Amino acid sequence: MNRSDLFKLWAPEDSIWSNWAKPVLFADSFITDEDPAQSDAWQTANVPWTPPADSGCAIILDLPGPGAVWVGMALSRHGYRPVPLYNGVRGPILDTSSMVKVDEIVAALQAVEEALKALQLPPAAPPVFLLDSKRLAGGNTPDPGAFDNRWSVFPQDFPSANLLMYHGIRSAILVQDTCKDPPNDLAHVLRRWQDAGMQILSAGAYDQAAPEAIKVQKPASFRALWYAALVIAGLRRNSAGGFGALAPVPGSSGGYG
Question: Measured between alpha carbons, how far is residue 27 from residues 156, 158, 175 in Å?
Fold first, then answer.
């Protein structure tokens, strides 16, 4: 299957949430040497905290590496539509030169091809948004010549609270490796949803406990007109879309686009 067809599996035309799926990793060269065992890895993911698909809940999976792909596919068995939001490209040579490692995510997106084909979800199936919690590489700054593919999420990367509520979504669960407060970029999203009247909950991906209701505090620069520009100024956009470019070496002419 070519990259375009695989993206269509992840973002089918009949799903109302496909407009938010990011094509960045699908526009890049895919790993063809995958481990066949990976295609079943998601079936071992245990998600006892999952609310019924008709409960009016959206889910955000903010997990390291390919974790969100595996948990997202497990949630698809409960009637949720996985929506990939990965927005950092691979490096021009080896993934080992990239600040954010994406090869395992790419392999996971490809490994579940047959499972995606078998999904029989309605167009309005509630969304589960897939993120890499390592997208900002722990806040590290790039060394000269490193491939800087750090990325951040912004409110426009998600449906608005009004649109979610129009489609019956009244709450959202943020799933991280442990139950905790959202990172700063997601706080800008979730606080907007909270202010619009949605309930925000938190859960640990591998916990047995039910999600806990939380109050999202206002993050720094909340609703500031210059917030997105300030964040993007510290990252490197890629000419093909998303984020990723070589950090300039002193004395060189610039980075890779």
Answer: 21, 21, 27
Rounded mean pLDDT, 119-132: 96
Look up the pTM and report it.
0.91
Question: Do 167 and 194 contact (CB within 8 A), yes or no?
Answer: no
77, two tokens: 């068995």
Contact predicate 212/172, CB 8 Å = no
Dihedral pair phi/psi, residue 65, rounded to 5°: 55, -135
Phi, psi of 169 (to 5 degrees): -90, 115
Euclidean distance between CA atoms 161 and 121, whole angstroms: 22
pLDDT digits (tens, 9 = 90+) for 26-85: 886 565 555 544 556 677 778 989 999 999 999 999 999 999 999 999 999 999 999 999
- The 10 Å Cβ neighbour count of residue 170 is 14
Interior/surface letters 48-69, b for 16+ CB within 10 angstroms, e for the rest? ebbbebeebbbbbbbbbbbbbb
**Residues 211, 242: Cα–Cα separation, whole Å:** 32
Cβ proximity of 189 and 180 under 8 Å = no
Which pLDDT belongs to residue 254? Answer: 45
Distance separating alpha carbons of residues 236 and 111, to the nearest angstrom: 29
Closest of 172, 137, 136 to residue 61, by C-alpha: 172
Structure tokens at 216: 């999202």
- Report the pLDDT value the prediction gives residue 256, as an integer from 0 to 100: 40
Torsion, Cα of 218, 201, 64, 217 (10° steps): 10
The kind and range of the H/E element at 42 are: none
CB 213, CB 134: distance < 8 Å = no
